[in-house]
Structure formats: C-alpha cells, structure tokens
Design a protein that fits this description.
heterodimer; A: mainly beta; Methylamine Dehydrogenase, Chain H; 4-stranded antiparallel beta sheet; 54% strand; globular; B: alpha/beta; Rossmann fold; Fe-only Hydrogenase (Larger Subunit), Chain L, domain 3; 2 domains; 5-stranded mixed beta sheet; 4-stranded parallel beta sheet; 14 strands; 38% helix; 13% strand; disordered C terminus; WD40_repeat_dom_sf (chain A); WD repeat (chain A); WD40_PAC1 (chain A); Probable cytosolic iron-sulfur protein assembly protein Ciao1 (chain A); CIAO1/Cia1 (chain A)
Amino acid sequence: MAKLELIQTLKKDNGRVWNVSWHPKGDAFATCGEDRCIRIWAKDLLGKWSNKVVLTDGHKRTIRQISWSPCGNFLASASFDATTCIWDKQSGEFECNATLEGHENEVKSVAWSSSGQYLGTCSRDKSVWVWEVAEENEYECAAVLNAHTQDVKKIVWHPTQELLASASYDNTIKIFKEDNSCDDWVCCATLTGHDSTVWSLSFEGNGSRLASCSDDCTVKIWKEYTPGNPEGISTSDNNSVWKCVCTISGVHTRTVYDINWCPLSGLIATACGDNSIRIFKEDSDSGPNAPTFNLICNVEKAHNEDVNCVAWNPVVKDLLASCSDDGEIKLWNFVDS
Amino acid sequence: MSRFSGVLQLTDLDDFITPSQECVKPVEIKKNTTSGTGSKIKIQEDGSYFQMEQDGSYQKLEKVEITLADCLACSGCITSAESVLVTQQSQDELLRVFDENKRFKFLGQIEDVKFIIVSVSIQPILSLAYKYNLTPNNCAAKLATYFKMLGADMVVDMKIAEDFALIEAEKEFIRRYRATESDGVKNQIPMLASSCPGWVCYAEKTHGSYILPYISSTKSPQQIMGSLIKQSVGRSKSVYHVTVMPCYDKKLEAARQDFFDNETQSRDVDCVITAIELEQMLQIANIPLEGLDNSEFSQPWLQNDTEDVVPNVQAHIGSGSGGYADYIFKSAARELFGEDCDNIEYKTLRNQDFREVILEKEGKILLRFAIANGFRNIQNLVQKLKRGKSQYHYVEVMACPSGCLNGGAQVRPREGISAKEMTQVLEKMYSELPVATPRENDSVMYLYDTWLGGQDSDKSNAVLHTEYHAVEKSFNALNIKW
C-alpha cells in the first residue's frame, strides 16, 4: 500500500501560504503567502528543515507565487500588488534587484523558461507576458499575449522548449511560442475540455504531456501530437495539437488547486480544496493514446484547510512539499510498498 | 467582439491592453432631503423603478447612463465606452445624419440643415485601394463620389492637417530640446508622439504624471482638421464634420472633452468612420466602389473655396504613421546642428517594431530617435523612462504593431494573406506615393497668416496644441477579487 509519510510540519503563523518552490538543487525551498514575505528554508545541522531567510519589503500585497531560475541564482515573486520582483544574491544577501511593472492588477503566476532566457507572468488583467532577460538586471517585455478572455491563473514552461502554457478562469489552457515569421509570440494551441476554471498545470518530465487541474473537480492529461504524427491526428499550420487523452473524475470532491508531475518518479500529486493530497500513478498496461491513471494514495486531512500547492523535490525522489490556507507547510515522503 | 485597436483593445492582433476592470462608475444617488431613512422602491412590470415619496406618491427613477466622457475619465475598463460609441459614432449614426439632413432639405427646414464635410486621411484610402484594386488617387476620388451620394457637401484631404502637425511637432521638439540643453528644464526630453489616441489614452489611464509631460502637446492631424473645418468653414455655417480614419481609437479622441466647443456646443469632429466600416457600408448598400465616377476634393479653407481639385494623395517620408520621427529628426539636425541628412537609416533593435536612428558627429551622439510600435515596445519605453534610463530625444509611439497602416480598423487581409503581408503591401503603396513637403505647402503658410495670426502666435498655440489629463486610479472594494 502506497502512502505519504509526514516528515515535518512548518508554521510561521502568518496567514495562508500560497506557494512552495524547490531550489533546482533540491536542498532548499522558498514559500510565500498572505504575509507579503518570502521565506527560504533549508536543513539545519540536525537535519531539520528550518527558516533561514525572510525577504520582506518587496511587495505591498499578497505574494501569490515564487519561482527559482534554472541556475538557482534568481528568485522571482509574483504579487497581487501588480508587480513581479526578481531577487538575487549578488551582494551576498538576497535583495530585490529588479521590479517588473506593467500588469494592470494582480500578478498570479511567474515562471522561468528552461533556458533561463525568458520569464513568464500572468495576471487578473487577462494577459500573459513574456519577459526577455537582458543584461544587468534588465528585463525587456518581449510579448503581451491577450488570448485569454478571463483572469489567467497559472503559467508553466515546457521542460526543454521555449513553449509556455497558461491556465485561465475562461476554462481553457493556451500554449504560446515565438513565431519568427512575425517576430512575435503567438498562441499556437487552445485546449478546451474543462468545465470550469483551470487552476494549475504541470508538464511531464519529457514535455510530451501536460496535466491540468480544475474547479470542475477533474484532472486532465493532454498529449502532444506533432505534425505528421503516426496516429494520423490532423494538425494545421505546422503546429502540434494537444488532445485530452485521460480525464480523472469522481475522485476529487472539491476544486483541484494544484498539480505536480514528478520528473523523477512519473507520479502526479494534486492539491485539493477538500484538504486532501492525492497521488496518481500511470497504469503501465494502458496504451499511449488512452492512458489510465490510478489513485494510489489519498491523504485525507493532509491540511486543515484548502491545499494550495504541491511540489515534488527535483533531486530527491519521492520528497513532496505542500502548503495550505491553514498557514502550514508540510514535507512528505512517498512510500510505495 | 471589441473593436478598439492599439493598446486599448485589439481583435486580430496579439498586442494590446485589455479592459481591466468592470465598470466602476458609481451609481449616482440623488439624496432625498426630507427623508431621514431609506426610501421604498417599487419595480413596475416593465422593469422601470419608482421611488415612493413620503407623501405616498411615486417618482420614476432615472436610469444611470454612462457617457463616453465618463469612460475616458475612469481608470477602469473601456468596454463600456464601446457601447457608447456604437450609438454616437457608428456607421448607422452617420447614415442617420445624412438621411435626416436630406429630409430637412426636402422639407425646407433650412435652419436645421447641416453642412456636411468629410475629411479623409491617407491610411484608409490605401486600405480601401488595396481592397478594391484601385490606385490611391482613384480610390480617393471614388470615395469622394460615394460620400457625395450619401449627402456630403464637401470631401476634403486631411493632408493639410498632417502638414500642420509635423511643422508644429518639429517646432515643439526644438523648443523642448533647447529648454533642456540651455536652461536645464526637466521632463521635456524625450518628446513622445501624441497622434495615436490609443497610446495617449493608455498613458493617461496608467502612467499619469510620469509620462504625460513628455507627450507632445501638438494636436493630432484629426483634431487639427477638426479645428480647421469648424473654425474656417463653421464660422458661417452649421457644420457636421466626419473623419475617415484607420482606427477605432480615433473615435475616443474625437469624443475628448478638450475637443468640444462650448460656444457652438459641438465637437470639432462629430463622427469618425473607419476603413472597415466603410467597407461594410459599401457592401450593405451593394455599391461597387470601383464602379463609381471620380469626384474632386474641396479646399474650403482657401480664399477661393469654390476651387475643387483632383485628388493627389501624398505621403510623408518615414513611417506610414505620419512620418513624425523622420521629419523631426531631419529638421532638428538641420536647425540645431546644421547637418543635412537626406537619407536616414534606422537600426532595428529588439524587434521590427522598435527601430532607432542616430545623428553622430565626431564620435558624439547628437540625436537619438526611435520608432516604437505596439504595446510590448511601449512597455519597454515606459519602464525605461520611469527608471531614468531612456537615452532618446524623440520617440514616435504608436499603439498598433507596424503603426497606422496596420490600424485596428483597416480592411482585413484577403483570404490566405496574413496581416503582416498586407501591411507590407500597404507600406509599399505608401512609399510609392509622391512626397509631401510641409514647409512648402502654400496653403499651410497662408493659413498661419490668415487664420492663426502667424506662426508661434498665441492663437496658433491655442488652436494647434492640447493638454493631457492623468486619470486618478479609483479603488473600490467591489473590484477586489481573488
């Protein structure tokens, strides 16, 4: 029987915690939330996770998400104060050395591309922005994408390509890439199927599939069919199509707020408004065009309130972090016995 | 679907600002002076609301109406503005005015008859010439016929206002440059172009006092045309003035309070109609533009205003958005540094919509100009300015990628052609037109003397320049969402 063993509970008693983000080396993570602080956590001498750094003074309102750059030297934070801050340790201490302005209101999500060359942000103003990392703390706006008709909740980059996926209150997922023929970024795919807000997204480790979770209490798996695919799925304009190949329904009893596909184990973790954390595993007997994902672990009351975020450690297999409206951050070890 | 272009709202272009908030205009509550508590409201079967007075009588409550002016004065969305525009400045409204005017004429109600003048700008002429396979001059001549068929009294070329705008912008730049260099006056340089209403509206709503001092006070050609028509012709007649433009945002500009004449209770531009709306009007009426006769353009601002001319549309060197950067660069190089630069070369920076040109002498950069089109480049420019990192002396800013030839209300491309390719066709057509030289335009010089009391006179400053107003952000608890 597979289970999640609680390793440690962390609490700073300052309101809901929105997001937890692992450092690419896996030996530290950052959290953020309602208290407008960013906290960086690492293990102390006794091997216990403890709060090493608190970053304040960056934002005037709730910090919704933080994201480490692939090199691990920069931390980006997205806030309801309409700005995105970039923090780094050039001076020895973490400092905010760039503030990206431009969104009209709440920034909901921020993420670095795998190359570290681009940064994506999205907002309640319905837009998705791509920023190009220029020289010396300069970030140039490379694109403002207004494909969504409502609040954009989350953006994630493809693990190897400069491909950006976004999830919105308009129930759709959109995928963007740079189109050299028009010298701008364009929306190259719209994924429809969810019946309500899409809250979060996560690419599979190799980028060929995308998992999404929604207010409609389902999880969907989308598979990329490239032009000329052997299955004969038609594509147009030399763009891939993304088709929903699996819908997990009847499992989550409330909104699914976050989803994370582990690149190391292939396991999918979900964070749910019913306070549970669930782990799904792909059935190895199922075919590539109709995969089956089985619920192998369901931690009821993983938190006392909505679970906002789940994040697999990128280096240490089966180590999962979660955070919640209850103000707690929890570390879990997945055991499949 | 919304039709605002540029930074306000685009339909087919991925480069714009969306309406950000729901309408935040507070509902006006007229205080009842006698009643200490709230009053009873009764809803009738037809959905109208009645308020019960203390004496038991009922009074009908007014519906809250949102005017375009409300929208422009608000920091929130502009979607409501659009529905207002539909009633104030649509093709239906234009046709209604034409028909009503015909009826007044027929009934002999001379005092109600308006003198209708249509001013045509170059970008929609090229767009429609492309659509109907006409030469630009033929297209202009046939458009003149079409408007006269509808009931226009005169159709005029807007080039005269474009010439005025370039001359005034050039003089303003030199004034600002000298004030900065010799007197150390702040917030003068870079001067930012003011002819794009999408950009101006965005700057007013979002960046207020940071950016507005840099925006050129020179009116856009549309509004200079408005003043010229209403003041030169409107003196003796009641004029209804229509402009033909490449984008919807021009409707917002025409509706600005700054361009409303309290004395005559009319706007300098009464109705803005765009290329794509004209295409629809022609289609609905089943009129093949190419099959119409040619008519002439009028010049009512001249002494002998009966002298009509065959359309001779011209371009201004440089961008298809009016050639501001080009004209001001060359004039400033000559005026400030005694340098003649006939051919200037633009260097493409981050993308094709951000280009710069430099005047360099003995290793020193004397002038640095740029053309920044589209919202992403506006963003980068604005952020640089805010951080004090802009090195530019002048930036021609337009909200639409590729500028006004690709205005949001130009005719859509033919089947199988991308917007980019169509813009390239229009750019080529534009570059092949004969070139206008504003300072050699006798009519402009004549008007400076006879209408404006000379160049740089108080009147010419008052008539050819305008002001911008920062919009205060309004915060309303109802707008806060998670």
